[in-house]
Amino acid sequence: MQLSASELILNADKSIYHLNLLPEDIAETIITVGDPDRVSTVSKFFDSIEVKKGKREFYTHTGTLNGKRISVVSTGIGTDNIDIVFNELDALVNIDFDTRTVKPNKTVLDIVRIGTSGSVRSDIPIDSFLMSEYAMGFDGLLHFYESDAIQESDVSDAFVNHMNWSPNKSVPYVVKYDENLGKKLLSNRIRLGTTVTNIGFYGPQSRVLRLNLSDADLQEKLASFAYNDVKITNLEMETSGIYGLSKLLGHRAVSMNCILANRANGEFSANPTESVEELIQYTLEKLTTT
Q: Measured between alpha carbons, how far is residue 89 from residues 15, 21, 80, 217, 271 in Å?
């Protein structure tokens, strides 16, 4: 079936609409970052850079490190942007732009998010690294896709019961990471945890400036949740969308979190830039030398 011009939107140069990329511009190993300025923080470690493109908050550098081709793409903040970025990354490798048809043989991308996060547990120190084994989405993105088969519904059900949420609350979805890609990035430096993806930075993450919260105990309830081996460890704003869309599209994804804030202890990193850069170097080494 041929995709219409209103569904697969291309620019005049045949690049994909938002990312402004051509199929040859991206590698099969991709690092995503939220902040556009962090793209160059990653690519400065490449041995060479062949592509530098950008549009809106979406910037891409593609280059080579230790003989391996890698792209780094900025997503901006939130799962609304993740919906754009991941559908367009998949289109770049799995849709023929000339015929506007889906390719019969699919390309599998390895996608690693490198991002910042806040812990809800007092025993997870600032400046530590955490890999999201599970992502719990409060954002609702995956409910727009046929996705029941990839969701960990037992974890979601247990969480709703724990929170004593009424039926009018949006039910969160839970998706697991890609274990094979996770093993490649794992070491004794990395904690495993369950990451909650929020739809905002302030109220949805229990921050109070001038507005009162509908549930003042939300953070404590999150920290006290336990179901089998699943315990909520940290909060951020993209991982659930990354895991959900990657699984649906047949890609492998892992989220690497640099813990800059400990919400339970009220602490924030004194050296956030250095900590994030250390996680970047760690991830690049694992991707290119193992």
A: 11, 9, 15, 39, 33
Chain centre to alpha carbon of residue 60:
16
Determine contact, residues 75/236, Cβ cutoff 8 Å.
Answer: no
Whole-number Cα distances in Å, 251 to 12, 83, 204, 206: 28, 14, 29, 32
CA dist., res. 168 & res. 155, Å (int): 19
As to burial, measured by CB atoms within 10 angstroms (0-12 exposed, 13-18 middle, 19+ buried), residue 23 is middle
Contact, 190 vs 131, CB < 8 A? yes
Of 206, 251, 229, give the one whose Cα is nearest residue 94.
Answer: 251
For residue range 180-207, list pLDDT tens digits in order. 999 999 999 999 999 999 999 999 998 8
CA R_g for the chain? 19
Opening angle at CA 34, ends 206 and 3, nearest 5: 115
Beta bridge partners of 61: 52, 72
Give per-residue pLDDT as tens, 141-188. 999 999 999 999 999 999 999 998 876 677 899 999 999 999 999 999
Q: Please report which residue ranges of 1-55 form alpha helices under DSSP H.
A: 38-43
Q: How long a stretch of residues is the chain?
A: 290
CATH of domain 23-289: 3.40.50.1580
